[in-house]
Amino acid sequence: MKKASGDVVSMTMDEVRKRKLPKSEKEHLARLAGLPDDQIDTGDLPELTTFANGARGRFYRPVTQSVTIRLNAPDINAAKQLSKLKGLPYQTYMKSLLHDALVREAKLASGSQNRKS
């Protein structure tokens, strides 16, 4: 964490999430949360008049990404049958199979890399 001038402190998102708030700050936030929006003093915030220098999506990173993949009908049917036995939706079952296979392949690949060194 690096400090800037005055009361401004720069922190990473991980530091913000892990930060323990003092009791006085928790109480202050609780009081603010109880106030209607029009009673909260925002006079010390600069007025935002334009989004000209804004960056869309700069802080948004999806946790998952969606892709379309073509699979053979027999593989899909087998996955549907096996997923029913496990009590899972077939797409969830296929996702877990893919994940497990990727983890296994990554371990094999890292093991072969270590043997070459």
What is the CA-CA span between the terminal residues?
A: 38 Å
Average pLDDT works out at 84
Characterize the largest beta sheet: strand count, sense, and whether it forms a barrel. 2 strands, antiparallel
Strand element count: 2
Low-confidence stretches: none
**Estimated radius of gyration:** 25 Å
Count of helix runs: 4
Helix content: 40-55%
Beta-strand portion reads under 5%
Main sheet: which strands, in order across?
1-2
- Structural class comes to mainly alpha
Order of helices and strands: EEHHHH
Name the shape in a single word. Answer: elongated
Task: List its traits.
elongated, 117 residues, two-stranded antiparallel ribbon, mainly alpha
Account of the 3D structure:
The chain has about 120 residues and is mainly alpha-helical. It has a domain at about 75-115. About 50% of the residues lie in helices and about 5% in strands. It has helices at about 15-20, 25-35, 75-85, 90-115; strands at about 1-5, 10. A two-stranded antiparallel sheet has the order 1-2. Helix 3 (about 75-85) crosses helix 4. It is elongated. The model has no long low-confidence stretch (mean pLDDT about 85).
In short:
Helices cover 50% and strands 3% of the residues. It has helices at 13-18, 23-34, 73-86, 90-116; strands at 2-3, 9-10.
